[in-house]
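Fold it.
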Amino acid sequence: MYYIALKMLFGDRGKYIAMVVGVSFAALIMTQQPAILVGLLSRTYSFIQDVSLPDIWVMDPGVQYVEEHKPVRDVELNKIRGVSGVAWATPLYKSLMSAKMPDGLSKTIDMTGLDDSTLVGAPFRILKGKLSDFKRADAIFVDFEAAQNRLRINVSPGVTRPLEVGDTLEINDKRAVVVGFIKATRNFVLQPQVYTTYSQALSYSAPGRRQLTYVLVKAKEGQNLRHICQKIEAKTGLKAYSADDFKDVNLGYWMKNTGIPINFGISVLLGFIVGAAIAGQTFFSFVQENVKHYAALKAMGLRSLLLAKMVILQALVVGFIGYGIGVGLATLFGLKFHDSVLAFRMPPILLLYSGGGVMVIIAIAAMAGIRRVINVDPAVVFRG
C-alpha cells in the first residue's frame, strides 16, 4: 500500500513539484533569515570575542556598546592593578576617528590602541607585516578587507587602487603609516578597523584629561570573576563586566534599540505562512484529485487507519525533500556570503527550528488530507 501511495504522489508530477517548492521556500526562509539575524547580532560583540585574553572589561558606567568611547582617567588603571585577585591589567583605547586619505578624502575609521608593552588585544591574524611592526614610528595596521574596498584611494578620475603598505594617512594632523594588514572579524558598525599602540592612539586623539577607554583585566587562577568585578567597582566607581556579561550588554543594546529582530521575525513568519499556504493548498488539492483512488482502496476493504498512514507517508516525503532542498540552498547562500557585508551564521539549533516549522506545515497539510480520505464514501468509485 505504501508503494501505491508513493506512486500516486510521484505520478502527479505537477502537484508534487509545487508541494516541494512550497516547503523548500518555507525551509529556506526559516533557515536563511534567522541565520542572517544570528550573524548580524554576533557582530555586536565580535571585538570582545577577538580580544579573548582578558577576563574582565572595566569602563565608564555609561558605556552601552563596545564601540562607544566614554573615556576614564588614566589613574584608574593603577587602582585596578591594586585590587586583590587581579593578575594583570592593561589599557585599551577605542574610538571612531576621521582619517585623511592620501587622495585628500576623509574616511571614518575605528581606531584601537593596544598596550605598548604587551600588545594585549592584537589581532591574531596578521596577513602582512609582523607583530613587531607595531613598535615602528607612526605605525598602523589596517583591516585587509577595508583596505581593499572602503579605503580605496582615487588615483585619477574613475580609477582607484587599494590602500597599500607604506601609504600615509593623516589623523588629527598626525602622520600614520600603514605597516601591515590584519584580518579582523567584522563588527556591527562596519567602520574600517585600524590598530596601533596605546600611546600612538592617544597622540591621534584630541587632548584631554580622560583618554583611557577600557581597562582589560586578567584574574588570577581560581578567582570568582563576579567578586573581582564588585571589588573593582567599589574601588574605582567604574563599571566592570566579565567578558561574557559585556557581550550580553552589547547584544541587549542593539536588540533593544534597533528594529532588526522584529524585521527578521516578520520575514520568517511570512515565509512560514506562504510556504504553508502553498504546500497545504496543493497537498489538499492532490488528495482531492486522487480521492477516487482512495475510495477504491476503501471499497477493497482497506481501513481508514491505513489510508491515513498512506497520506502521512506522502506528506512526510514531500516535507523531507522540501526541507533538504531549502536547507541546502540556505547553506550554499551562507558559504557564498558568510564573510561579506551580509552577515550569516547558522548554528545547529537553527536547523532544528526550521525543521520544526516544516513539520508543522506538513502536519497541517496532512490533517486536511486525512480528514478528506477518512470521510470519503467508497461508493464514489462507482459513480463514474
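The chain has twelve helices and 14 strands.
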